[in-house]
């Protein structure tokens, strides 16, 4: 006889625990433990009873019992702190305290809960040729139906923000809201709407505080990709809606990109198309090493060959040339700078409404041709098109640091970190912070950020250069000279006299400061 509690169904005959129609993966002993607690829910179950029923009387350690109880709680979305469903009774044992509904069959339970399942025999919609997502209405857990408008407003903001991402196919609000107030089978929703990813969540309001939870699911495989909790005050409800929507979109966009990259990696190489070449190139670009950038550039060229109007691929290819320049990896400096500039111009021409193309192409142009003002303008347009694109913020922050706007640069970089706190390009945000603090004459802070960047990517030449100059101007000459040896080994051509060609600094005082620090550390003048 299946047991139903909250959104879970525990079926003894099938030995399955499901959540909203999805099977929850748990071990056999964890299942037995949960079943025992649910079956004996009217009383406290002692540890001796647990040993008899789950471990057949075999003596196990206290920590083993505790870890299995924790696994039970995790499986049903509970914690040792909350004890919402499984309560610890001190020196007595454990008790299941959730409200239970017993059903004669899973089919009855599905009818009672109004679970939406795919129609038998119905053909699933074909998935689009790019990542696809629907945002389901968030559950209102506040106990006040009058708060539905708040939850709905957050979802609508998230849908609008996701719709700005050109590489993403987003189901319209009117279709996703047909599921409002109904439990769903996420895989069934994916088939009905023809999407690979589903975002769902809940809203809980208490006094002036609100808590939003969200989780991203790969509906084609039934696996969870991401989950997060957001909290805030209701003093300005509309500002809170905007901030939560921005945070959710900023967090899930990199997760979607990573999931798509992994999907592309599983695809046979003889069936790759332009988009998959682009994804593979992006994965390589995130690694930041010389070998990886060379491989990324080749993959972006293959994407361009298959789709000559692929603006984002042009932007990423141009960005690879910039990265080769800044790290001293170019073999034909003049020719490669010209090629990178050509690719960047094509990116911004073909991608006037493509935030990724404008971001990578605009940043590459600023470095390759020295036009930082135009680069910032292009990145600002990218932000208007997609305010949640973290690279538009951190690359824009770096350009603002080069223009001497250090406070604005730090703000931009902090915003990028908030949008994407686990970003594979975090080392770029860290070197941006190092540059901004260096030109603000905060040498100890600049050193700390440069060291963090090098911790993520040890052969990052800009970080080594900033760290060297920061040590020198901060009075740590011995450490500065040690770093100078490392800097010259990476790029023997770097001189005080060609710093402007290496890094397009816009203020003469910033160039003089950088030159002073590197000169003190021992960089030759010419």
From TrEMBL:
TPR repeats lie at residues 390-423. Keywords: DNA-binding, TPR repeat. The keyword Metal-binding does not apply. InterPro entries: OmpR/PhoB-type_DNA-bd (IPR001867), Sig_transdc_resp-reg_C-effctor (IPR016032), TPR-like_helical_dom_sf (IPR011990), TPR_rpt (IPR019734), WH-like_DNA-bd_sf (IPR036388). Residues 1-98 form the OmpR/PhoB-type domain. Residues 1-98 bind DNA. It holds the Pfam family Trans_reg_C. This is CadC-family transcriptional regulator. It comes from Pseudomonas alkylphenolica. The keyword Nucleus does not apply. It comes from the Bacteria.
